[in-house]
Amino acid sequence: MSYKLFIPGPIAVSDKTLRAMAQPMIGHRSNDFVALYQAIQPELQALMYTKDPVYLSTSSAWGSMEGALRNVVQKKVLNCMNGAFSDKWYDVALRDDKQATALKFEWGQPVDPEAVRRELAKGGYDAITLIHNETSCGCMSDLAAVMKVVREFPEVISIVDTVSSFSAMPIKKDELGIDVLITGSQKALAMPPGLSLISVSKRALDRAAQTPGRGYYFDFVEFQKNHEAGMTPSTPTVSLIFALKSKLEDIKAEGVENRYARHLRLNKMVRDHILAKGFKMFPKEGYGSVTLNCFANTLGYDLAALNKILKSKHHLVIDGGYGKLKGKTFRISNMGDETDETIAAMLKSFDAALAETPKVSA
Ligand SMILES: *Cc1c(COP(=O)(O)O)cnc(C)c1O
């Protein structure tokens, strides 16, 4: 049975993108590949508002997220934690034998720039990890405010995950002073999973060159060497790079400003509709994501039953809560290629399904 994903990743992939993947294979050391790599590079740099190179990593975002730690952390990393993905980044740092400090906020609360300043001021840090848009609880931190604080500490290399916000709103890498910007293919970019993009500043690259134990597969120095020749260190997911080229053409055709405005508009459309039913937002007011909404299940509906009805009768699924929020929140994505029409149709299905859904608590 086919059904459409309104979960916040992976999300629905257009037929055009899928068709782009179905092209005949090319050799990854061929001129054709170099031409492909070099054609998309300036487009990616423009979308990231950076002059730095954008490496193509054949991995999900976690590959790049772990790789970044292995490349730049020599002394100690500060892991800002306010949801499932950012919490896990701390765990990953420990597994990589890095010295790490957990800077914890409640799920749904943004990263507090003052708390970051207090912690970094203690000294000893040479890196920080931060998730711009915590997809697990639909919370978006004020990246500009946090980066303003991070820039006060020149020794600290910033690693920022924009997996579920990249290309949905402007994230100005160079202007904000982000050293390592990471995203993945299956969220805001609306591609199948398996490709991750990493843009690395000169100072992060210099740090990497001096960092022992960075391995091979995610080594920034290897990426840079190959980048200069228009290639990747190992055989990349060529099909997904075809898809990326197609997606970049879509973004250009729509116009980035229109794309940003569309995400804002559709996000509000979902939020207004669901709040009018009496549900509440889960994240702190003013820090809701623009690419998804995470609602508190304040009306006590059986979310598993709701999703079953949505899937079987309306051929779509939403998310019934991530990890410890399962059953307590639900998330609806407006990432990717959604339009006023597709969102309106999804909300109509939601209403019909909700009317049939039992409550688990009064
Ligand atoms: C989905 C997600 C990840 C993890 O991505 P994978 O593709 O599973 O590695 C990391 N960060 C954020 C913010 C995400 O939404």
What can you see in these coordinates?
The chain has 362 residues and is α/β, with parallel strands linked by helices. It has two domains: 4-10 and 255-356, Aspartate Aminotransferase, domain 1; 15-252, Type I PLP-dependent aspartate aminotransferase-like (Major domain) (Aspartate Aminotransferase, domain 2), CATH 3.40.640.10. The protein has 13 helices and 14 strands. α4 (84-95) links the parallel β3 (77-81) and β4 (100-104). The model has no long low-confidence stretch (mean pLDDT 97). The protein has helices spanning 15-21, 31-48, 61-72, 84-95, 113-120, 143-150, 173-176, 202-209, 220-227, 238-254, 256-275, 303-314, 340-356, and strands at 4-5, 54-57, 77-81, 100-104, 127-131, 133-134, 139-140, 157-161, 180-184, 196-200, 280-281, 292-296, 316-317, 329-333. It has a seven-stranded mixed beta sheet, with helices on both faces. A three-stranded antiparallel beta sheet has the order 11-12-14, covered by helices on one side. Residues 9, 60-62, 85, 131, 133, 135, 161, 163-164, 184, 187, 193 line the site of pyridoxal-5'-phosphate. Residues 9, 60-62, 85, 131, 133, 135, 161, 163-164, 184, 187, 193 line the site of pyridoxal-5'-phosphate (PLP).
The count of domains is 2
Residue windows where pLDDT falls under 50 for at least 5 positions: none
What compounds are bound to the protein? pyridoxal-5'-phosphate
Query: For this structure, what is the CATH class of the largest domain?
Result: Alpha Beta
Q: Report the total helices.
A: 13
